[in-house]
Amino acid sequence: MTRHIGRLAGVFACALLFPGTAQAHLVSTRFGDFYDGMLHPVTSLEHIVPWLALGLLMAARPQAGRWALLAFPAGLAIGVTLDAAMPALPGFGTANLVSILVLGGLVALDLPLSAAAFAVIACALGISHGYVNGTAMAATTNPVLFAPGVVMAGYLMILLTAAAGAFVTRRWSAARIALRALGSWIFAIGVMMLGTALA
Amino acid sequence: MRRGAALLALLWMALLAIAGAAYAHETPIAVLRIKQETAGRYYAQWIFQSDKGLPAPTAVFPPHCTYEAPLLDCGSRGLVGMLSVEQLDQRYSGVVIQFTRAGEKTQAYTLTPGSPSVAFGPGGGSSLAALADLMRAYILIGFEHILLGVDHLLFVLGLIWLVRSRWMLLKTITAFTIAHSFTLAAATLGWVGVPERAVNAAIALSIVFVGAEIIKLQRGQIGLTVRHPWVVAFAFGLLHGFGFSNALTKLGLPQDSIVLALLSFNIGVEIGQIAFVAVVLAVQWGHRTMMVHFDRRLDPVPAYAIGGIAMFWFLGRMSMMFTS
Amino acid sequence: MSRHSPTLFAATLALVAFAADTAFAHTETGVAGGLVSGFSHPLFGPDHLVAMVAVGLWGAQLGNPAIWVLPIAFPAVMAVGGILGVMGVALPLTEIVIAASAIVLGLMVAFSIRPPLAIAGVIVAAFAVFHGNAHGLELPEAANPLAYGVGFVTATGLLHLCGIVIGLLIKLPAGAHLVRACGLLIAAVGCYFLAASAGLTA
Lengths: 199, 324, 202
Fold this sequence. Notes:
The complex is a heterotrimer. Chain A has helices at residues 2-17, 33-42, 45-60, 62-65, 68-85, 92-109, 115-134, 143-171, 174-198; one strand spanning 25-26. Chain A is mainly alpha-helical. Chain A is globular and about 50 Å long. Helix content of chain A is 78%, strand content 1%. Chain B folds into 2 domains: 29-120, no CATH class; 134-323, no CATH class. Chain B contains 10 helices and 9 strands. In chain B, the strands form 2 sheets. In chain B, strands 4-5-2-1-7-8 form a 6-stranded mixed beta sheet, with no helix packed on it. In chain B, helix 5 (166-188) runs antiparallel to helix 9. The longest helix of chain B has 32 residues, at 258-289. The radius of gyration of chain B is 23 Å and the shape is elongated. Residues 1-27 of chain B have low confidence and may be disordered. Chain C is an all-alpha fold. Chain C has 8 helices and 1 strand. The chains are: A mainly alpha, B alpha+beta, C mainly alpha. Chains in contact: A-B, A-C, B-C. At the A-C interface, strand 1, helix 2, helix 3, helix 8 and helix 9 of A face helix 1, strand 1, helix 2, helix 4 and helix 7 of C.
């Protein structure tokens, strides 16, 4: 049992301190399916990058962007549930790569998105990513615990990213440019990842 | 205020009125003897089974050990860590482990379905690495315990909610920490004995109390907790410490380095608690920065939820106390 | 109010955190390797490195709007070269063009030349396409392409930032000279690499 805890703690430390050090790891937890669900998306760049991008997008327009705080977790919940009901649907992996490109591009363009646009984007992103996180469930995993874990991780990540972004842009106007540049970089990553996947 | 006092009284009554009731019944026991041969190598064998018809229980040794009956090889670290016995409640009511280190007296450990594992410390000639192993193991156990201990987290959540300033929050959380560390140590070291089920029920009631205080605050009544949150945190902290102790003793403690294990467990609990508080505060800050507001009519919902869940636990734990 | 809402949320957390003991596995190979190799790639190619800093310096020198248009547009343009790279299309003369771009950008900074934004954009874009192509070619070979991408993007972005921060020194009296000296240095490094790629050095 200590073995499992040790392994989990290692993963935890990696995830918190420096996601990069988690090389070839096996996320095996004794903390139950809730924490498994919470940990899964934050140990994978495939989810971290677009979620950060969503947070940055919200940071640029806090008034409208906060609707994503409702829509994104709802989408994640739908996505994980969808996976539990209908596993192995194709196309979600590619959709997630496209999401990196689209969100990065939106951050770079700094368009004045409406609340409705935020809700739609966040919900679609949530469904797609929730579905892929759902595929990490083993046969013994309880989706009733795993799904809220994923939802919680998503909510925390976009809320804190958005709040941090909004905070610095309010303080320093130059941060807004840095934010857009970051979006542009994320867009570039998305384009190349999509190219890699399709090539 | 009056209702709060009533609740408090009820809580302490629940604690004091019920003495631990021991009950016994006949079921088979088995004895496992572990003798040290050389450094890191042991001879481990089941030497007694009260009912010969049953297969011997399965012992699970620490992961760095390899067991090929009857030889147990634990390498340079030695037999340090958790030993547990599987299916204890299904076949055996108890297992006795006789552990003899080279040149030392035999120590006996009793495992029961309630505490199916025992932790071995590094023993007399303990190396620093073995002590580090032990500390790491117990810090992680403490961390795990608080993260899975929904009742403790719910109570801390209620406190954060009631406390109105950062300074007060610091005082309150510190008071809670000191109090539960104190009773955790006292109960684990055997200075005081408290019936487990009564403690669990009382912990549930402490959360109901916090829920009620939140509702009162929303109605503009300044309750005991709002005025002196750290007093309440300290009082209930004593209670939660007993809860931690129950979990820890159930897990098993190395008799030869009990203080270190206790300290490590406590550190793990505090790390988990600080992490939880940090997340809640970060979320509060995030909501402020993102200007997230909820309809005022929704305000009482979380408080009623906390109170409702806790009351549900309380009733469940009370019924457990009387039915078995 | 805002301070109450986390409670709703944490109550949910609490509700669902009941222990369930199943373990599950999730494998991720080479994230660290990808990040490190991606991060170090732009740093260990000195021609890339100086050209990248030059973009930031020049942006700062040109002032508004170039100071923000260049860092934002650069990655998007770079992606064009990148996607060609990941598709396996290698642009010709990559090393020579990158070295040449370091010379051009360095000289622009050294002589504090201020062309219209469009022309500045084209010069930087040409460099960006070739730069992206060089990285894109390596991306699919990385143990974890996404980690590699994140790593090199972080490094490149930080280099821009370095350039911009150094560039901000022009507001100081001696700073303008310092920035121009940096430009000269960059052009010199570019010359060296141009010579190297043409086979003129040992």
